[in-house]
Design a protein that fits this description.
This is F-box/LRR-repeat protein 15-like leucin rich repeat domain-containing protein. InterPro entries: FBXL15_LRR, Leu-rich_rpt, Leu-rich_rpt_Cys-con_subtyp, LRR_dom_sf. It comes from Corymbia citriodora subsp. variegata. The chain is an alpha/beta fold. The protein has 19 helices and 19 strands. β8, α9 and β9 form a beta-alpha-beta unit. α9 runs parallel beside α10, α14 packs parallel to α15 and α17 runs parallel beside α18. It starts with 8 loop residues before the first helix and ends in a 13-residue tail after the last strand.
Length: 499
Amino acid sequence: MGRCKLITDMGVGCIAVGCRKLTLFCLKWCLRVSDLGVGLIAMKCADMRSLDLSYLPITEKSLQPVLKLRNLEELILEGCPGIHDDGLATLKESCPSLKVLNLSNCQSVSHVGLSSLTSEAQCLQQLILSYGSTVTADLGKSLHKFLGLQVVRLDGCMVTCSGMNAMVNWSAHLKELSLSKCVGVTDDCLSLLVQTQRELRKLDITCCRKITYASINSITSSCSFLCSLRMELCSLVSRDAYLLIGWRCQNLEELDLTDNDIDDEVLLAISRCSKLRILKLGVCSKITDDGLKHIGRHCLNLTEIDLYRSMGITDAGIAEIALGCPALEMINMAYNENVTDVALISLSKCPRLKALEIRGCPYVSSIGLSAIARGCRRLTLLDIKKCYNINDNGMLSLAQFSPNLRQINLSYCSVTDVGLLALASINCLQIMTILHVAGLTQSGLTAALLACRCLMKVKLHVSFKSSFPESLLSYIEARGCIFQWRDKARQQIGILCFK
């Protein structure tokens, strides 16, 4: 029931009384549900295993009955402003069956409140404290009692060296550690931690801007089982450190090197990771088709590749990926002026392709998009914003050959009422962004909105709002569609369109 903002304690109480065998209940963003409603759920639904109370205005009063649920395995309290140390200290019980606890965005909960909430949770396996209080030595020490802990996420937290060092002597064998955007992570504390957590499978050090070659050397030499490494924008890590990843981490299935100092030699080393499924190389200005050739010829299991704003890539590099990676499901080539219809025609040979992002590629046209529509019948997501040469012909091909399309952004395209109406005939279409499409009229847009019966969200320019009858907007909203109105000025087109 996430985001059902009109639901109150009365409605939740009716569900609690009538559906006593519930095992999973999500009330995320149900802002009118309070301690009373949550307490009723806890008292009436004894079999509850998963309870999501994110962003609810609740306090420790409702947690007391919740923690008495003997079968509860997952409790999500993300962003609950009424949850704090003082209130949690009054709790008399903890839930021994709890395996997953999410306290992200609960900045008033420190190691004191955490200890109160988990005093009997000896089975805890996942602990999520992202964007919460500072990771201190006391917090690190409080985690030692959880011998079965496998996943710890501290994204966005202020991390102290003493806090990281307190984690070093854990008896638990972590499988996943996430330190994305953690201020305070240094080479010394990270190196020491990974040397004691050699069974790590997933590590996220995105935007840890103080780490250098030393950290990567420790990670790659200590964590031989690593299958996922995310390290976007680690700006102090030198090029040679990335070579170590290719040489030592042969089990990698996911690698994020977005906005880092890598080149074709690094891609050659990474191509040794033959199990790679997800590779992100966005904003890597030094890579070219020569490096991408090695990926296409050796990483044959690749399903996702991100080349966002990697301007050294051309049609030839995309052709290597399309030829060597037939299981490809997602590719992002946004804002690359070197990509043309030739690249799209190459990708049309990837029948499993589901997501294609080519916004800001001014030299692709309806010819290439039509090839994608014919060859990639599983397409569900398409971003063609600022593809000025895509017109009604492309929309007609999508209408004919892409029955699974669910989301499209066609802002700034050369589409008219004819193309939009054709698009509206796709039964699965749920999300559309239509900003600054000069060829559309108010009547054409109205007809398309009425025809697209499964639409859940549409983003339009605010200038259209006053031209629609209020009754029309109410009717479409009653079908479950959310309007998002934008007042962005039209950006100037700096490239000539061709016929």
